[in-house]
Automatic annotation (TrEMBL):
Protein name (Swiss-Prot/TrEMBL): Deoxyribodipyrimidine photo-lyase
Details of cofactor binding: Binds 1 FAD per subunit.
Pfam families xrefs: DNA_photolyase, FAD_binding_7
Residue ranges occupied by any Photolyase/cryptochrome alpha/beta domain in the UniProt entry: 3-136
Length: 462
């Protein structure tokens, strides 16, 4: 009988509360196997990324932590670069593995990739075991009474909370059986340049399990006030954990458990955000066509004029609308954008500039540290009114009033648009309304009231 099992890490870069590793170690303890941990830098995904990419650096640094933790337990992390469809079956042969364990990834491309891997492994006589790990409820675990997917968030959330048992929040411990990890020769970690990327400073993102823990501990002290602070980008109100949730350097079960323990309005609303994450994941699983198409078919082929110069101004943060420009500059400089600002800039792109939401979605996908297909697509289709439980098309954000409401003193604008720093708290939201001959800041590229009417007409035609 084969003496090893492999655990294939993907978006679960931690050595605690890990479903696949837990099951692999437990089975190994029962049948005398040893467990080897592997990670593949997927060349098909990396090929489409810019050569300086914060996400790749985040993964790289998180892997270093994972590797060190495995070394402390007498093992190591096997890291390769290439096509996992080739490499995983190869590694399975190289290490004479009886089985490969991994956690679910519900993105359409990942589902396809995993099916190919499984087929090859089965041809080689090896088993492929996969587990739910990155969400509390997945796929069709939450359905309406008639067995359909939920299309509205609030009843989905209600059903999610009603289904929740203590067992859903229990960790998948790995500590008790870590001695089942295999002792293997020291493994070389490919450098960033080996995989075709340049170094980029991401220390501010606090990568890895350690970073996730620091951020979560910090947020726990603020969670009770989340409902009051979460909408203000200049305030430290949110958790900043999205990139950690994306790459699994934190455990969703620990996060949800802690929110329920803390309780109160802030924690409840934060838990609801974690449930939004699962709402969009189940949506993508049920409706993979949303990757390219509007969830609402009647809005799939809206005749957006798609002005390329306007798109470039939006991307570069020079639309003449300070809150939009500050937000886009934050994205370009840091890879993060506050949720309120994501809603404002997305609405502005679609309903003020009349540009197809898919253009904005692609730009976010390239630049967001926390880019996640389901949340990004869900967020864009929400803002564009084409999506599941989306903003109705006739509710159009006014960027200036949003700015006055959510950045009342202009603190956030001043941080990213220093050329506006000297303006007073009133003028900073709409500098063009006041006479500033010396100001090195563009005039608004569109008129909101005019574009609002044009957007309404565009949607009404369908
Ligand atoms: C147009 C648009 C695009 C977006 N793209 C992404 C994306 O690519 N990746 C991503 O993780 N989030 C995305 N979001 C959701 C949200 O903006 C971010 O999750 C949030 O800003 C991250 O900051 P945080 O971790 O401090 O969030 P917190 O406010 O602390 O929320 C906690 C966690 O809940 C989840 N969450 C919060 N809001 C949402 C939401 N609306 N939808 C799904 N999950 C949510 C995230 O995992 C987040 O980390 C998008 C929203 C919009 C409007």
């Amino acid at each position: 009988m084969s003496k090893t099992a492999l655990v294939w890490f993907r978006r679960d870069l931690r050595l605690f509360d890990h479903a696949a590793l837990h099951h692999a170690l437990n089975n190994a303890a029962n049948n005398g196997q040893k467990v080897i941990c592997v990670f593949i830098f997927d060349s098909t995904i990396l090929a489409h990324l810019p050569k300086k990419d914060r996400r790749v650096a985040f993964i790289w640094h998180s892997l270093v932590q994972l590797k060190t933790a495995l070394q402390e337990h007498g093992s190591d992390l096997v890291v390769r670069h290439g096509d996992p469809v080739e490499l995983i079956p190869q590694l399975a042969q190289e290490f004479s593995a009886a089985a490969i364990y991994t956690n679910h990834d519900i993105e359409p491309a990942a589902i396809k990739r995993d099916a190919s891997v499984e087929q090859k492994l089965n041809q080689q006589g090896q088993q492929f075991h996969h587990f739910k790990d990155q969400v509390i409820f997945e796929k069709d675990q939450i359905l309406t009474q008639t067995g359909q997917m939920y299309q509205v968030f609030t009843p989905y959330k209600r059903a999610w909370l009603a289904k929740l048992q203590d067992s859903d929040l229990q960790s998948y411990p790995v500590q008790p059986h870590l001695h089942q990890l295999a002792t293997i020769p020291a493994q070389r970690m490919p450098s960033m340049s080996d995989i075709g990327f340049e170094e980029i400073d991401i220390a501010f993102l606090k990568p890895g399990m350690d970073g996730g823990e620091i951020l979560f501990d910090d947020f726990c002290k603020r969670m009770a006030r989340y409902h009051e602070t979460r909408d203000f980008p200049s305030v430290k109100g949110v958790s900043y954990l999205s990139v950690h949730l994306r790459f699994g350097t934190v455990s969703i079960r620990e996060l949800a458990r802690t929110a329920l323990q803390i309780g109160g309005e802030g924690a409840e609303i934060w838990l609801a955000e974690l449930i939004w994450r699962e709402f969009y994941q189940q949506l993508l699983w049920h409706r993979p066509d949303v990757v390219d198409h509007a969830f609402k078919p009647e809005y799939d082929a809206l005749a957006f004029p798609n002005n390329e110069a306007h798109f470039a101004a939006w991307c570069e943060g020079r639309t003449g609308f300070p809150i939009v420009d500050a937000a886009m500059r934050q994205l370009n400089q840091t890879g993060f954008m506050h949720n309120r600002l994501r809603m404002i800039v997305a609405s502005f792109l679609v309903k003020d500039l009349l540009i197809d939401w898919r253009w904005g979605e692609r730009y976010f996908a390239l630049h967001l540290n926390d880019f996640d297909l389901s949340a990004n697509n869900g967020g864009w289709q929400w803002a564009a009114s084409t999506g599941c439980d989306a903003q109705p098309y006739f509710r159009i954000f006014n960027p200036t009033t949003q700015s006055q409401r959510f950045d009342p003193k202009g603190d956030f604008i001043r941080r990213y648009c220093p050329e506006l720093a000297e303006l007073d708290n009133k003028q900073i939201h709409a500098p063009s309304l006041y006479l500033h001959p010396q100001l090195a800041y563009p005039d608004p590229i569109v008129d909101h009231a005019t574009q609002r009417q044009a957007a309404l007409a565009l949607f009404k035609r369908n």
